[in-house]
Amino acid sequence: MTPGDSDLNLKVIGDAEPQGLCGSGLVDAVTGLVRVGLLDSSGRFVSEEEARDVAPGLAGRLTRIGQERVFVLHWRGPAPEDSIYLSQRDVRELQFAKAAIATGWQILLEEAGLEAADVKQVLLAGSFGSYLSPASAIRIGLVPKVPVMRVVSAGNVAGEGAKMALLSLRERAGALALLEEVRYVELSDHADFNDRFVGQLPFPSD
Q: How confident is the model over 52-85, as pLDDT tens digits?
């Protein structure tokens, strides 16, 4: 989705009929809605009038199911509740996760005496992180604002690391040596964690 889009294009695994929305798809959908202006920086869907002004081709997908506002990603009939949609609750839950992660890496950078520009590489790992779009993760503030090429999908690093440690004495010794260099930072010990968390809830304006 980009400003001026007249409709929405979805990529579906297996080129089949969409059945739902995965976690990385949620991040991409929210990023697109922020980019076109249908979600404001606070995470709220804009009014119907504003939607028609900023994205007239997509405004018809912004509707309600009961009292909750939703954005329909894929129509499966005339009723939005029978379709695949992104709800205001979905957006809020992503904001909470994003704020917790962003607060964490901000505190870690400060503890290390570094700034986001000093980060040489961001590794996205695990069953969720590996499938995230680096550009989307940066756009909503999930990871530090660094050049997109510095954000790399690392795959299942926990599983691979466990296998390496089990199969190789040298790799196991290296892991133990690295452990001695790691400093644990308890985020909840920071008195201003909650204030920082609240400050990270909004999506970046650019």
A: 999 999 999 999 999 999 999 999 988 999 999 9
136, 28 Cβ separation under 8 angstroms: yes
Residue entry with tokens 């969409």: 18
pTM comes to 0.86
Among 41, 67, 90, the domain-final residue is 90
Look at residue 52 and tell me if it is in a domain: yes
| Distance (Å, whole) CA 106 – CA 4 | 34
* Total of domains in the chain: 2
Nearest alpha-carbon partner for 83 in 67, 94, 96, 70: 70
> What domain range is 145 assigned to?
97-200
22-54 exposure pattern, b = at least 16 Cβ within 10 A, e = fewer: eebbbbbbbbbbbbbbbbbeebebbeeeebeee
